[in-house]
Amino acid sequence: MENQEMININIEGRTYSVPKDMTILEAARKVGYNIPTLCYWNKGHNSLASCRVCLVEVELNGRGRLVASCVYPVADCPAEKGFVIRVSSPAAVAARRASVELLLSNHSKDCQSCVKNGKCELLHVANITGARDNRFEGEKTPTTLDECAPGIVRDTSKCILCGRCIEKCKEAQGIGILGFEKRGFNTIVAPAQNKSFANVPCLQCGQCIEVCPTGALSEHREIDKIDAAMAAGKKVVVQTAPAVRAAIAEEFGHRIGEQNGTGRMVAALHRLGFFRVFDTNFGADLTIMEEAQELINRITNKGVLPQITSCSPGWINYMEFFYPDLIPNVSTCKSPHEMEGAILKSYFAKAHDLKPEDVYVVSVMPCTAKKYEAKRPQNAAVNGLPDVDAVITTRELADMIKRAGILWDELPEEEFDQDLLGQYSGAGAIFGVTGGVMEAALRTAYHTLTGKEYGPIEFHEVRGFKDIREAEIDIEGTKVKVAVTSGMKNGKILLDQIRAGKADYAFIEIMCCPGGCINGGGQPFVKPNLLPQEGADILDTYRQKRADILYGIDEKMTLRQSHNNPDIIKLYDEYLGKPCGHLSEELLHTSYVDDRPCYDD
After folding, report:
1. Cα–Cα distance between 241 and 281 in angstroms, integer?
2. CA-CA distances (angstroms) from residue 2 to 5, 6, 191, 313?
3. How many C-beta atoms lie closer than 10 Å to residue 451's C-beta?
4. pLDDT score of 535
5. Quick one: DSSP state of residue 333?
6. pLDDT band at 44 (very low <50, low <70, confident <90, very high)
7. Domains identified in the chain and CATH numbers
8. Cα distances (Å, whole numbers) of residue 120 to 159, 217, 380
9. Can you tell me the distance from the alpha carbon of 34 to that of 26, in angstroms, rounded to the nearest whole number?
10. Sequence-ordered list of residues with C-beta below 8 angstroms from that of 330, at least 6 positions apart, any chain
11. Residue 600 pLDDT > 80, yes or no?
12. Which of 154, 186, 330, 570 could form a disulfide with 146 if both were Cys (CB 3.0 to 4.6 A apart)?
């Protein structure tokens, strides 16, 4: 609060001192009043003042008027001039209740089958305001149900026109796929001309899903595909991304960052009947071996630089849509779960005398864009079979666990299966946070170039949530300049520099979701607007708490470099030969298109 100009305000007859630049909503939450909201998500992010759920009464000389507290500045109602803010006046309470009742009157009532059942902010606010869902009856806005895209489903019957998804797409990715379409009673939120997500350059990142207060936006669920594969007698193998363990406990009532869910998650997966339970960290170690060697090859052979990471499918979508001229800069390495899928259907299947088509690979990911990535024809290395057959999000896995009646807090801590692909390094674990891929790659690239281990092992320069982070690493006289960013709004800055020939980096890490996979579109929902305290840093706070879990895993590992993973060494010795060799190129590398169609073209 230092150096902030303060102002006195009067709320319900009591005087409080708050920063002058706050809104009534922010100030009220700061002093202990949790005014409900729907269109507002978090300070500094968006509020269109469209839902009218945060109405309060501002009174002067006995005369009051209703204002939207999410946009009304406290500077306009100083206590010294006699203003009183009434949160619970009869007029304010009735107005908030009526606003919610109007929203309910145009809302789908299939709550039991809704993916937001139990997490719906509209029902939460209805409960707070005492709203009745049948007070207003009449015609409903015509519905659009869009299930065509691989990652995202849109159901306008559940949309409340809050605009949070519109603002999030612009804020995180800078592309503004969504907007208000049509007018008046027929208004909906949609891509331009109410096109399907499959017919526009949507990244499928799912950041819009993360902020949707209802079930209007959700992931394209694939649990039924897993059920069918198990029923058909397939050997259903599951792998889990590092970011999943950092957040899955939140689905079972734990606070953000409170629990590393690894052991209980593995125990639950065993109980769900999977043939093997593996860690995508192994695939991350494999990715580093290939990506670091690719970088070294480019540096030593004067290849195209900077090399840009390729493990974020949302970023790859963005590149193919908007920057196809930079394809030569992008690493050809598949993402970790795709690499692991290819190894499962080749090396693993052969070792167990299984046909590749009988090995059904499921990836548990924090990301909705991975659902499209698994369907890319370029990711089908073994007999034309997809490397990964089904992708489910962290939320979908939690639903499977709950459906099976498994009690999370009663589960023991169990280990991943140790069967050819069992071991992994701390470098693989930090893949889930922005900067982690860069740090893991530098650890191995340093060793490959010098024959020595980098010490101290951490590259702190590339950590954190600053929009763009730069570092210069001295590898025994060779200066390697690198950059890290997340969120395509930030990524565009670096991409424009490369396009203009002004980027002097050797290596760039780009992740589509702000903060990296820990903040992916398939992670547990975070609802800062329901928190009693208000703060502009809430986004970095919850990302940091999840990131701390992954960095903690890395710090506790004896094995912290991908190139020292015994199972990785064995894989190359017995099967692959060498990084970026002939078989590695066939199984572990991919290609991109410079005339990218939309998903169903």
Report:
1. 7
2. 9, 10, 43, 42
3. 8
4. 44
5. B
6. low
7. 6-102 (3.10.20.740), 141-219 (3.30.70.20), 224-588 (3.40.950.10)
8. 12, 12, 38
9. 9
10. 307, 308, 310, 316, 319, 592
11. no
12. 154
